[in-house]
Amino acid sequence: xxxxxxxxxxxxxxxxxxxxxxxxxxxxxxxxxxxxxxxxxxxxxxxxxxxxxxxxxxxxxxxxxxxxxxxxxxxxxxxxxxxxxxxxxxxxxxxxxxxxxxxxxxxxxxxxxxxxxxxxxxxxxxxxxxxxxxxxxxxxxxxxxxxxxxxxxxxxxxxxxxxxxxxxxxxxxxxxxxxxxxxxxxxxxxxxxxxxxxxxxxxxxxxxxxxxxxxxxxxxxxxxxxxxxxxxxxxxxxxxxxxxxxxxxxxxxxxxxxxxxxxxxxxxxxxxxxxxxxxxxxxxxxxxxxxxxxxxxxxxxxxxxxxxxxxxxxxxxxxxxxxxxxxxxxxxxxxxxxxxxxxxxxxxxxxxxxxxxxxxxxxxxxxxxxxxxxxxxxxxxxxxxxxxxxxxxxxxxxxxxxxxxxxxxx
Length: 410
Known about the structure:
Number of helices: 17
Radius of gyration: 30 Å
């Protein structure tokens, strides 16, 4: 298309215009290379503009066009969590669910406190990925406790999935002893069992470099664990016996552990169980290598966290990190009964907590060196008071005296 009139000026053909645009673009990039701040500011402004256009298009129901705008925005500025959140919602509206999950996760990687947790949880739940949905519900609830519906759904998933995981870990060592120590056990039985246990851990946390298994009943299997993992460090956490019994009595156990923890609902049975636990731990203390059997006293830990924590970290062969003194700042999800206490800074308020409930404790008082056994028998009314305390603490409410929650952890 050329103007062939005499003296006429030939306009640019379409291909010529493209070449001109390309040259302009290259020139702009060259200028940007010389002046990075100006170029960066231009990109950020353009990304912001694309995000606004995308939201306007979403409001008008033009989702496919909105996605194009959001995708361009994240290419220009990939560090804005809200843009990924907008993109995730647009993907979800068009049925591109896996891309929506990825966009939500990217938004949370940029801003862990954004309001993406619950939408992500609902999405994962709908995809049948309940194991991934559960921590997302928990994180969302921690940021917005008013979302009661998420709490109900989390409880259902915890019953369905969490109990399976807890029961699997709980039963592993109990069902394994005869395979290692039985008369027909092969020589390589410990190695085989160790491999199975590692596979179990990988199914729970595939990327973990180290694992702490704090299943409450592990203390009864330390000989077996020592045979299977001779280099494992065993950490025995001790606390005043009556504080320990009070904590157990007022803590609701997961359904998977409930049958084995039947003793915990009766104070006299609890005191008897504790005495047998002490006998067994005295045995392990005699026969296990001291360098692999580390004991930490709760009262000493909260009185001098730096010294005791450094001792524990060194005993485990780990490198010291100052973050060890601020465990409450760790954003790792906690799904056990200690989640309420673990979210608070280390403190000493739970030391001697049993004295607030002394009139109702009954036989566990005999575990106190300076107490007289049977001084305060625990009747039905006393049990009701303590169980009320347990329900209040499990529901994150105040204890009857305004004290801390059930396990007494810092």
